[in-house]
Design goal:
Elements (H helix, E strand, L loop, with lengths): L1 H17 L8 H23 L16 E3 L7 E4 L2 E4 L23 H14 L2 H8 L5 H35 L4 H4 L5 H5 L17 H15 L19 H19 L4 H16 L5 H18 L10 H14 L13 H4 L11 H19 L1 H6 L3 H8 L1 H27 L4 H44 L31 H4 L3 H5 L10
Antiparallel strand pairs: 1-3, 2-3
Helix pairs in contact: 1-16, 2-3, 2-16, 2-17, 3-9, 3-11, 3-14, 4-5, 5-8, 5-9, 5-17, 5-18, 9-11, 10-11, 11-14, 12-14, 16-17, 17-18
Length: 521
C-alpha cells in the first residue's frame, strides 16, 4: 500500500513537470484543497486529545462562562447545559501552536472556508469560459449547466452513502465495539481523553438489519440540503455536515451563472460583488458568499490572466501574512484573546453571533487565493507532486479519516494508556504513537477509497447522464469540465480558454474530487 502511495506521488510530480513550462495554471486549486484536507485531518486528530488546540494564544475565558455540552474544559463545574468555568489556572493557552497563523496547522474551521472558495472557483471555470466566448456559446453553456445540475448530486451523495455504509458494516463486525464502551457519552469519553471535542461512535445495535435501519434514518437527517437553520449531520460521520451545504451552494452557483450569462461583464461583476457583500452580512450565508467569490475571482482571472514572470516582493509577503492572520481567526472565544479581540469590536450586520469570525476567515481565504493564483512562488508550492496527490485524494481523505480516527484511533490510544499509563508525559507519548499508526493508515485507506469509489462515481455519473439522455455509454454530452469521456478513442475535449496549451491540466483531473469538504462543528 505504501508503495502505491509513493508511486502516485512520483506520477503526480512527473506529470506536473511534463506540463512545464509553465506549470499548470489551475493545478494550484488541487494543491490548495489537498493541503487543507490534510490540515483537517490534523485538526480532528488533535482536538480529541489536546484541549488547547481549540483556543487561540492568550485566550482567557471569563469566570462563570458556560462551556456547551459535548466539549471539555477541565477548570469548571458540570451544570445542566455544559460546564461552568470556575478556575482559570488549568489552561493559560500560551503554547506556540496557538499563535496566529501557526494555529492553522491544527484548526479545521478555516479549512472549510478554503474548501467552499475553491469549489466556487473550480466549478466556475467552464461556465465562465463559455460566457466570455459570447452569445454563440450560450447553447453550449445551457447544456453544460444542465449536465452540472444533473451530475452534482450523484457526485456528492454516492461517495458519502458508500463511506457511511462501510461504517455500518464495520460496526456490525465489531470494529467499533471496544471504542463504543467509552465513547458513547461526553462525560465518559472526557474522563480518558483530554481534548476539547467529543466525537461519538455510532450506536452498536444487535443485528445488521437494525443497524441498516438506524443508518437510513441518520441519512434522512443528514441529507436535508435546503435547511439554513442548522448544520445537518449523522452519527456515522459527523464531519459530513458540509456535503449538503456544498450541494445547495453548487446548485445556486449554477443558477447564478445562468442568470448572469446575458449581462455585460461590468454588470455581471457588479451584481456578483453586491451579492457577496449581502451574503456576508444581512444574508447570513457566508458559505454562499464564498462560492460567489470563487466565481468572481475566476472571471477576474480570465479577464486579467496572472503573469508567470511576476517577482515576489515585500508587499506580497505582507499580503500573505495579513491573509493568513485573518484566516486563522478562531471560531470560539475570539473576544477573549488579545490577538483577535479588536475584530469583535467591528459590527457586522446580519451574521449570527457565533458565525462572526467567518467574516474575517472569508476575507483571509480570499486574499490567500488571489495571492496563490497570481504569485508564481506561492503557486508553485501548491502545484508540486505532493500537493496534487493530496488534492486527488482529498475528498476520500475527508470521508474516511473520521471513521478511522473513531475506531482504530480511539481503541489504540486507550489500549496504549492501559499499558504505558496516562500520567504526565505518558499520555502524550501514547497519543503520538497513535498518530504514527493512524496517520499512514488513513492515507492508505483514502487512496483505496479514491480509486475504488470516488473516481468511479465520476465516471458513473457521466454514464448515467448519457443513458438518461438516450445517448448510451458512448455518446454523452460534455461534462462539467467539457470532457466527454474517459479517454474514449484517446480524445479529450477542452473548454475554450482552458486548453492544455494555456492551463496544462486536463478536465478529468479538474473534475475528479473537485468538491469542498468541511471541518469540525
Amino acid at each position: 500500500m505504501l508503495g502505491t502511495v509513493l508511486d502516485e506521488l512520483k506520477l503526480s510530480a512527473s506529470s506536473s513537470q511534463s506540463r512545464n513550462p509553465p506549470r499548470a495554471q489551475t493545478a494550484w486549486l488541487d494543491g490548495l484543497r489537498g493541503y487543507a484536507a490534510l490540515l483537517v485531518f490534523f485538526c480532528h486528530f488533535g482536538i480529541v486529545y489536546w484541549n488547547n488546540l481549540r483556543y487561540a494564544y492568550g485566550t482567557v475565558i471569563p469566570l462563570h462562562s458556560i462551556i456547551p455540552n459535548g466539549t471539555n474544559y477541565p477548570g469548571g463545574q458540570p451544570v445542566w447545559n455544559g460546564t461552568n468555568v470556575t478556575a482559570l489556572e488549568p489552561y493559560r493557552h500560551t503554547y506556540p501552536i496557538q499563535l496566529p497563523i501557526v494555529r492553522l496547522l491544527a484548526d479545521g474551521d478555516p479549512m472549510v472556508v478554503i474548501f467552499f472558495l475553491v469549489s466556487g472557483y473550480s466549478l466556475s471555470l467552464k461556465p465562465t469560459s463559455l460566457i466570455r466566448a459570447g452569445p454563440t456559446s450560450h447553447p453550449h453553456l445551457l447544456t453544460t449547466l444542465s449536465s452540472s445540475v444533473f451530475r452534482r448530486p450523484i457526485r456528492l451523495i454516492l461517495p458519502i452513502l458508500a463511506s457511511t455504509l462501510l461504517v455500518v458494516f464495520a460496526v456490525t463486525i465489531g470494529i467499533y465495539t471496544h471504542a463504543s464502551t467509552f465513547a458513547s457519552s461526553s462525560r465518559t469519553f472526557h474522563s480518558y481523553f483530554h481534548g476539547w471535542a467529543f466525537e461519538a461512535t455510532p450506536h452498536v445495535l444487535p443485528s445488521l438489519n437494525l443497524q441498516l435501519i438506524d443508518w437510513f434514518y441518520s441519512l434522512y437527517d443528514l441529507l436535508d440540503f435546503f435547511t439554513h437553520f442548522h448544520w445537518t449531520m449523522t452519527r456515522y460521520d459527523i464531519h459530513l455536515w458540509t456535503i449538503p451545504v456544498e450541494l445547495r451552494c453548487s446548485l445556486l452557483l449554477f443558477l447564478t451563472h445562468l442568470a448572469l450569462a446575458p449581462l455585460v461583464t461590468r454588470a455581471r461583476l457588479s451584481l456578483l460583488t453586491i451579492s457577496i457583500l449581502l451574503a456576508l452580512t444581512w444574508g447570513d450565508t457566508w458559505e454562499m458568499a464564498l462560492f460567489w467569490t470563487g466565481q468572481l475571482l475566476c472571471e477576474i482571472d480570465s479577464l486579467h490572466p496572472p503573469s508567470p514572470s511576476l517577482v515576489l516582493r515585500k508587499r506580497h509577503l505582507f499580503s500573505l501574512f495579513l491573509s493568513l492572520y485573518l484566516l486563522s481567526t478562531p471560531l470560539v472565544w475570539a473576544h477573549c484573546t488579545p490577538f483577535y479581540r479588536p475584530f469583535t469590536w467591528v459590527w457586522i450586520p446580519g451574521l449570527r453571533a457565533y458565525e462572526t469570525s467567518r467574516f474575517w476567515q472569508c476575507l483571509g481565504a480570499t486574499g490567500l487565493m488571489i495571492l496563490v493564483a497570481r504569485v508564481p512562488v506561492y503557486r508553485g508550492f501548491f502545484s508540486n507532486g505532493l500537493a496534487r496527490y493530496l488534492g486527488r485524494i482529498s475528498f476520500a481523505l475527508y470521508l474516511v479519516h473520521g471513521p478511522v480516527l473513531r475506531s482504530v484511533g480511539y481503541s489504540l490510544a486507550f489500549k496504549l494508556w492501559q499499558v504505558v499509563g496516562r500520567e504526565g508525559w505518558r499520555y502524550h507519548f501514547c497519543v503520538c504513537l497513535t498518530g504514527a499508526v493512524v496517520g499512514p493508515m488513513t492515507i492508505a485507506v483514502a487512496n483505496v477509497f479514491c480509486r475504488r469509489v470516488d473516481e468511479p462515481v465520476v465516471r458513473f455519473a457521466r454514464r448515467v447522464e448519457g443513458w438518461m439522455k438516450g445517448e448510451g455509454e458512448e455518446g454523452g454530452e460534455p461534462g462539467v469540465w467539457g470532457w466527454d469521456g474517459e479517454g474514449r478513442g484517446g480524445e479529450e475535449r477542452w473548454a475554450p480558454g482552458h486548453g492544455r496549451g494555456d492551463s496544462g491540466v486536463s478536465v478529468e483531473e479538474a473534475e475528479l474530487g473537485r468538491v469542498g469538504r468541511g471541518s469540525l462543528s
